[in-house]
Amino acid sequence: MKLTNEFDSVRTWANNKGILAKGDPKTQFIKLLEEVGELSRSILKNNDTEFIDAIGDCVIVLTNLAAIKGYTIEECINSAYQEIKSRTGKMENGTFVKDK
Q: In the chain, what are the domains?
């Protein structure tokens, strides 16, 4: 799974802003919750412009959080994908429910 350079751009931006050097996981997690709240509002309001922005903001915060902890977002995505790629299950009420 090859991902694009956008993550490198985010890390460069975060480094230039001091987020990677001075940020900590707890404050980044709180920031993520704030962005998830914005995502929730965009879904409830059916506002695609806000939805796109909120998804992007969540990914940026997750990219920064991973970097602060010494990982890359690409490693995290790949690890999660390796776990789910062979998962079986079915859709129930709009949600994928994995087999036990």
A: 6-98 (1.10.287.1080)
